[in-house]
Amino acid sequence: MKGPQAVCILLFFSSTPLEAAEEAEKRSDDPSPLQITVDNLAQQVAANKAEITSLKADLAKARTHIAFHAEFSHDPVTFGPSAPLLLDRVVTNIGNGYDAHTGNFLAPVSGSYLFAVHFMGNLNTNTYLFLMVDNTLQDQTYSDGDGQHWDHVSATTVIHLRAGQRVWLRSDSRGTKQYRGGHYTTFSGFLIVADP
Ligand SMILES: [Ca+2]
C-alpha cells in the first residue's frame, strides 16, 4: 500500500504552478459544486414560494365566513300571494349576504351552503312556505289550519350555489297569509365550504 500512495504524492507535487493554474482555469468553465448547490437551493426556494402562495389562497378560502340569521320584528306578519318574506330583524349577517329590505340572500362566493327555515303560520289557515333558489323551488314546508294546534314547521336544505345566486322565501300563492313573528319564524344559512 505504501507504493501507490507515494506515487500519488509524488505526482501531486510534480505539477508546476503553471500547470496548476491551467487546471484551475479549465475547472472554472464548469459550475462548481457550490454553484450547483446554490442553484438547486434557489430552485427549491422558488418552488416553496409558489406552494406557500397557493396554500395562502386555499387558507383564505377555508376561512371565508358567511352566516346569517333573520327573524320578524313584529307579530304576526301578513304577506300577499307569492310575496317574498321580508325578515327584518337581522340577528347575524357575517359576509353581508342577507338583505333585510328584499329578503334575499345573495351568495357572496361559490360553494356549498346550508339553509334552514322555521315558521309558525296562522292557527286557522293552511299556510305553505317555499324556499327558492333564484326562481326555482328548492324546498317547502306547511302549517295546517285545523284551528286546534299551532304548528311549528321547518325545512332544511344543503345546496351548491354559484356566487350571486339568490335564496329567498316565498309565501303561499293561495291568498294572503300570516306568519308568526318573534322567534317563531326564522331564516338562516351559512357557507359550509367555498369552492377551491
Ligand atoms: Ca295546526
UniProtKB/TrEMBL annotation:
- How is this protein named in the record? C1q domain-containing protein
Localization recorded for this chain is:
Secreted
Q: State the UniProt keywords alphabetically.
A: Secreted, Signal
Query: From what organism does this protein derive?
Result: Batillaria attramentaria
Q: Which Gene3D superfamilies match?
A: 2.60.120.40
Write out the GO cellular component annotations: extracellular region
The answer to whether keyword Secreted applies is: yes
Q: Where is the C1q domain?
A: 61-196
